[in-house]
Design brief:
By secondary structure, the chain is mostly helical. It has helices at about 10-25, 35-45, 50-65, 70-80, 85-95, 100-115, 120-130, 135-150, 150-165, 170-185, 185-200, 205-215, 220-235, 240-250, 255-265, 270-285, 290-300, 305-320, 320-335, 340-350, 355-370, 375-385, 390-405, 410-420, 425-435, 445-450, 455-465. It starts with 9 loop residues before the first helix and ends with a helix.
Length: about 475
């Protein structure tokens, strides 16, 4: 008795594959209808065996020579195996059989992009759509092309068309969020996602992307609500937990964030990024043993995660284990040698170890990489000042002011250095510049050199700017 399988079911597919493989074993020739061949090709494609899938497509073409479907399948498989010229040959044959095949021109457009010809790709995509290829995938492909070209307005228009054709196209939803971020129109993005949710309230991807927009707008309360809805609809959607944890970190709710991050472990294997995020939370809570433990788990899973190596160093630094911290800071630096935060930490550790020349070198790296880091400039100059190298300290602050002319902290520090060097008139000039920039920060001068509080000239100048009697 013949088994009754539902058309297109996995059982029917398995039966077709078994029959095809039996034919190969027997070195025979069986006849298969077009649908059966398509199912067999799909089976091998899903198994990531494009070579076998190509063999099936070739055999299918011999039995169904006027079916353009198998020429398209061959072209797709040739693209997958990076045989672009062969793919184009099959597509040319397909368009002879079916001149108005939008799918063929869509695939030609993809090949043009892979060959670096963006303009040709654009023309082919547009022609495919003109021929009636109005699928969600067609619109999504051309939207991706416009993203490559940096034409984000056009990309947004086609992503919306893609979503009109298929509301479940999560990739289009994510791409749309990215494009709206680039064009910096978050309010319009919120309006779109809310409208989309009105049409499909159970789209966890739409809720997630709405959360992303709110997060970028620093609207953290609404962001958490949106992520919660995404989780409610799809409790195993890990990115929503991770992003919710990030928002809680921004709100300094570190203990709550740890709990949310750990929820991801229920749905997927722990990742280095999650362990690192948990480590940072414990670090903020000054629970350094727990922080270090999680950072170590992170680097065990991903030895190339620089932030985790750096985090271990921070926890050791906190415990005054400066020499040990340097080892881990260097590990982070080996992976990201242009990260100013890593250089800053090394500079600070070197200073605490009284390795002043090495500290000066590291601070110099920091201000080269991030010349707007006022704190780094101040610390850099103070190393020279504390060694009595007043001229060098003054030179550093002078460079800092050139880069940050609005930073009053720098002017007040320079006043202190100039007074220490005996350059009183120059110091008073810079004092006035500092007061003109921000009169409320004059106390910085006295914090650094308390003895100047008794200087009548200085006090009189400060009173002039602060309206003190």
């Amino acid at each position: 008795m013949e088994e009754d399988f539902e058309f297109g079911s996995p059982e029917e597919q398995r039966l077709s594959v078994d029959r095809y493989e039996e034919m190969l074993r027997n070195q025979d020739q069986y006849f298969f209808d077009a649908k059966a061949f398509e199912s067999i090709i799909e089976y091998y494609t899903d198994k990531n065996d494009p070579i076998k899938a190509l063999q099936v497509a070739e055999y299918a073409k011999s039995q169904h020579p006027y079916e353009s479907t198998f020429l398209l399948k061959k072209a797709q498989l040739f693209v997958r195996t990076s045989q672009l010229d062969k793919a184009l040959q099959e597509l040319d044959k397909a368009t002879i059989l079916e001149p108005n095949s939008g799918e063929a021109f869509l695939l030609k457009g993809n090949i043009a992009l892979l060959q670096g010809d963006v303009e040709e790709g654009e023309q082919l995509f547009l022609y495919a759509i003109e021929l009636g290829e109005d699928s969600a995938e067609a619109y999504f492909q051309i939207a991706e092309l416009y993203q490559i070209k940096g034409e984000y307005e056009k990309a947004i228009a086609y992503l919306k068309k893609s979503l009109e054709a298929n509301m479940e196209n999560d990739d289009a939803l994510h791409a749309l969020a990215f494009c709206y971020e680039i064009v910096d129109r978050p309010e319009e993005s919120v309006t779109f996602y809310k409208s989309f949710i009105d049409s499909d309230p159970y789209s966890y991807a739409a809720w997630f992307n709405l959360g992303l927009v709110y997060e970028r707008m620093d609207n953290f309360g609404d962001a958490i609500d949106a992520y919660d809805y995404a989780i409610l609809i799809n409790e195993s959607f890990v990115p929503a937990y991770f992003n919710k944890g990030n928002v809680l970190v921004n709100l300094q709710k570190y203990t709550e964030a740890i709990g949310v991050y750990k929820q991801t472990f229920e749905y997927e294997r722990p990742t280095a990024d999650v362990y690192c995020a948990i480590g940072e939370c414990y670090e903020k809570l000054e629970q350094m043993d727990e922080a270090r433990e999680n950072y170590k788990k992170a680097v065990k899973l991903d030895p190339l995660l620089a932030d985790a190596w750096f985090g271990i160093g921070v926890t050791l630094d906190f415990d005054d284990r400066y020499f040990e911290s340097l080892h881990f800071y260097k590990k982070a630096l080996e992976l990201e040698d242009t990260n100013p935060d890593y250089w800053f930490a090394i500079a600070d550790a070197r200073y605490k170890l009284k390795q002043f020349e090495e500290s000066e070198f590291a601070y110099n790296k920091v201000v080269q990489l991030n010349p707007t880091d006022v704190e780094a400039w101040l610390d850099f100059s103070s190393i020279y000042f504390e060694q009595g190298k007043y001229a060098e300290a003054i030179d550093v602050i002078g460079d800092a002011i050139k880069q940050n002319p609005e930073a009053s902290d720098l002017y007040y520090r320079l006043v202190a250095y100039l007074f220490a060097q005996g350059k009183y008139n120059e110091a008073l000039n810079f004092l006035e510049l500092g007061l003109a920039t921000n009169p409320d920060k004059f106390h910085i001068l006295f914090d650094y050199l308390p003895q100047l509080q008794g200087n009548k000239i200085i006090v009189d100048i400060i009173n002039k700017y602060t309206n003190n009697p």
